[in-house]
Amino acid sequence: MRRGDDWRGAPLVEVRDIRKIFPVTRGPLGRVVGRVPAVDGVTFDVYRGETLGLVGESGCGKSTTGRIVLRLVEPTSGEVRFDGMDVLSLDPARLRALRRRAQIVFQDPFGSLNPRMTAGAALDEVLRVHGLVDGRGEREARVGELLALVGLSPKLALGYPHEFSGGQRQRIGIARALAVEPEFIVCDEPVSSLDVSVQAQVVNLLDDLQSRLGLTYLFIAHDLALVRHVSDRVAVMYLGRIVELAMAAELYRGPLHPYTRALLSAIPRLGRRGGAIRDRILLRGELPVYAEAPAGCPFYARCPHPEKDEECARIVPDLAEKTPGHLAACIKVSGGGPLETGRPAPDSPRSGT
After folding, report:
1. Alpha helix segments (H runs only) across the chain
2. Per-residue pLDDT, 344
3. What's 344's DSSP letter?
4. Is-contact 222 55, C-beta < 8 A?
5. Number of alpha carbons in the 13 Å side-chain half-sphere of residue 236
6. In the β-sheet with 241-247, what is the strand arrangement from edge to edge?
7. For tag attachment on the chain, is the N or C end more exposed, with fewer CB atoms within 10 Å?
8. What are phi and psi of 219, to 5 degrees?
């Protein structure tokens, strides 16, 4: 959203080697029978004014990562810094102060709003809790300003969530996040539950708000085509780990990791005669559950890379810089190039043949 701007400098958000392991319980007493590493050693930075897209399949750990950044979920280990502050060591008072600087827009706009509160009451509550505006009259005026800021009529302050469309509810969720005048917002799949016709409107709103208010976004999504248009840089997640990170234009022009190549090959691209420009790279098998992840590269079982060997099965690849500013977690990748026509994975038929 700020492509071409020189926003590099000290990062606003620094995430270092975060892990989150959820216990697996069984029986009426909740006996722990296993552990699931939902996030496994994730590291990245988010710079002021940029949009970092975090993309991957459902269940890859991207939403958990976003919530750890805001400390809505406590990590098992790792480090998160916001503007130099150690987020994971903040006491309740300082954590509450952080909430004014860092907010979240949730995926489900209906589930994130209290059905018993009007839109105005939901926004008024934020203003009262944080002591941002004195007096009922001033708060009502501020509520009207927030609704207008996200493209809604102030008259809608009297409406309840069930009376609004999905797009209107999400705009109210965005207004609630903006009520505390934050610097950083985690957008957790903010348009995935909306109609396609409404998605563009909400994305354009977020873009406009970033330009007007100087916001920084961590934009979480599974739609690669959408992430391409909203992000300055893109991080691709697979099975709890980041497998590729680069500038958006560079990643889409020359993806390095086999998983990213497969994902991008699935984006429909029509030629002049209506045929697909690229064949789809078909991945063999299903996304493994965390408990059954391979000991080496987590993508090993599904990887279509022609040079895959036993070394891949036993080595967990680090996220390393392969070309300037372009990182990938694959020991068989050294440099980039345009995405070539895909070949099906072994023992996997082409779609439509």
Report:
1. 62-69, 92-99, 119-129, 136-149, 166-178, 196-213, 224-230, 248-253, 258-265, 310-314
2. 31
3. P
4. yes
5. 28
6. 102-105, 184-188, 216-221, 51-55, 233-238, 241-247, 326-328, 320-323
7. C
8. -105, 110
Residue-level pLDDT at 340: 37
Helix (H/G/I), strand (E/B), else coil: 16: strand
Residue in this structure with the two tokens 């300037």, named with its chain if needed: 324
Asked if residue 198 lies in contact with residue 209, where contact means CB atoms within 8 angstroms, the answer is no
What is residue 293's predicted lDDT score, i.e. its pLDDT?
59
CB crowding 338-350: b at 16 or more within 10 Å, else e = ebeebebbeeeee
Among candidate residues 265, 230, 244, 261, the one with its CA nearest the CA of residue 337: 261
pTM of the predicted protein model:
0.87
By residue count, the chain amounts to 353
Q: What is the pLDDT of residue 134?
A: 83
* pLDDT for res 5: 47
